[in-house]
Specification:
Elements (H helix, E strand, L loop, with lengths): L2 E7 L7 H12 L3 E7 L5 H10 L2 E6 L4 H7 L2 E2 L1 H6 L4 E4 L5 E4 L2 H12 L8 E5 L3 H12 L4 E5 L3 H10 L6 E4 L10 E4 L22 E4 L8 H8 L4 E3 L2 H16 L6 H12 L1
Parallel strand pairs: 1-2, 1-3, 4-6, 7-8, 7-10, 8-9, 10-11, 11-12
Antiparallel strand pairs: 3-5, 5-6
Helix pairs in contact: 1-9, 5-6, 5-9
Bound molecules: 2'-monophosphoadenosine-5'-diphosphate.
2'-monophosphoadenosine-5'-diphosphate (ATR) binds next to helix 6.
Length: about 270
């Protein structure tokens, strides 16, 4: 029987995950089918239990259920523990649920493998201090950057995050107005792009060697990346590669097989232009 997988969210209509995972299945010959499930806002856990008792082997979790998934897990990987959020659940052989977070691994792989951007020894500025940023800090720190500065509109949230990750590397917090010097890499992890807004980052943060990465993507250049291009950043990258790489990492967690991502990214890009 074909193994079932799904992404759970609310809303879920525009999720690319089914296309990505079904393409991975076809490419690797894994016998699975992946669909999108709209879970009720107050019924995520029941919906997941129903899914795994009816042939579901694993699932991805997106907004607004990442913390619900963390709470319902029986076992949690260290990286999901540190992120305090879960984007991947796997049904273990004994029926218990393992929770993982593949977002940070996806971001790091997109930067280092797909775009050949080394993080080691770099000054990295991260904008935002919400769940999206918490989810990627540990894998970023594992790359041994010289420093990570977390800047957020609400500075106290950046401070909390910096404290939580202080043991893993050189992390500090800042308000946008207090950002000093330029950075090798700037990662936008705020949800400002969703509203077409720009975090108030000083222009001096960007130099001609800065790589700017927006964790969001859309059919047009994001406001953040357009700003960075105007300032002469070395490169701008959007979050499409991160999306595909976090999916590939989840596929690997479930199936023990790592799919190739280049083709899937290319197809999504050309679909976006249509
Ligand atoms: P997510 O799970 O996407 O991280 P979140 O936890 O709601 O969502 O966090 C959103 C992040 O985007 C926060 O860091 C938020 O800043 P505050 O903590 O000050 O609210 C940031 N953000 C949202 N809109 C923004 C804007 N217009 N300018 C700057 N930062 C913004």
């Amino acid at each position: 029987m074909t193994d079932l997988y799904a992404v759970f969210g609310n809303p879920i209509g525009h999720s690319k995950s089914p296309d990505i995972h079904n393409a991975f299945a076809e490419q690797t010959g894994e016998d699975l089918f992946y669909k999108a499930i709209l879970a009720p806002l107050d019924g995520f856990e029941d919906e997941v239990r129903r899914f795994v008792s009816h042939g579901g082997h694993g699932l991805n979790v997106t907004v607004p259920f990442k913390e619900n998934a963390y709470r319902m897990a029986d076992e949690i990987t260290p990286r999901a523990q540190q992120a305090q959020a879960v984007n991947t659940l796997k049904k273990l052989d004994d029926g218990r649920l393992l929770a993982d977070n593949t977002d940070g691994a996806g971001l790091v792989r997109d930067l280092t493998v797909n775009h050949s951007v080394s993080l080691a020894g770099k000054r990295i500025l991260i904008l935002g201090a919400g769940g999206a940023v918490r989810g990627v800090l540990q894998p970023l720190l594992e790359e041994k950057p010289a420093e990570i500065v977390i800047a957020n509109r609400t500075a106290s949230k950046a401070e909390l995050l910096a404290n939580d990750f202080a043991e893993l590397g050189n992390v500090s917090a800042s308000g946008f107005g207090d950002i000093e010097g330029s950075f090798g890499i700037i990662i936008n992890g705020t949800s400002a792009s969703l509203a077409g807004e720009l975090p108030p980052v000083p222009e001096s943060a960007v130099s001609h060697v800065t790589v700017c990465y927006d964790m969001m993507y859309s059919s047009k250049t994001t406001v953040f990346n357009a700003w960075a291009e105007k300032l002469g950043a070395a490169r701008t990258i959007d979050g499409l590669g991160m999306l595909v790489e976090q999916a590939a990492e989840a596929f690997f967690v479930w199936r023990g097989v790592r799919p190739q991502t280049a083709r899937v990214m290319k197809d999504l890009r050309s679909e976006r232009r249509r």
